[in-house]
Design a protein that fits this description.
By secondary structure, this protein is of the alpha+beta class. 30% of the residues lie in helices and 24% in strands. 0% of the residues are buried. GO terms for molecular function: ATP binding; protein kinase activity.
């Protein structure tokens, strides 16, 4: 998923990472996924390296869990690069 945002210091295209849960009525599963996302945010915010994209923000309200926002990199995915 990708989108555009104007509220960042450098407006432009962004990547939005969202996690969907097929069984949204399972409150324990939703809580566990939420904890994992919060942990990823906490770790990502602390990472400072030229080869790691800066964490920009989260988006809430488009699903049960927050989505992570970073700058869009148009050169393909890491998965395709590693293949």
């Amino acid at each position: 998923m990708s989108g555009s945002v104007l509220g960042l210091n450098n407006p432009g295209d962004v990547a939005v990472k969202s996690v969907s849960i097929p069984q949204s009525d399972d409150t324990q599963l939703v809580e566990k996924a939420g904890q994992m996302i919060r942990r990823e945010i906490y770790v990502w915010i602390g990472l400072k390296h030229n080869n790691i994209l800066e964490f920009h923000s989260i988006v809430e309200g488009s699903g049960l869990l927050p989505a992570l926002v970073s700058r869009w990199m148009g050169n393909g995915s890491l998965d395709s690069y590693l293949r």
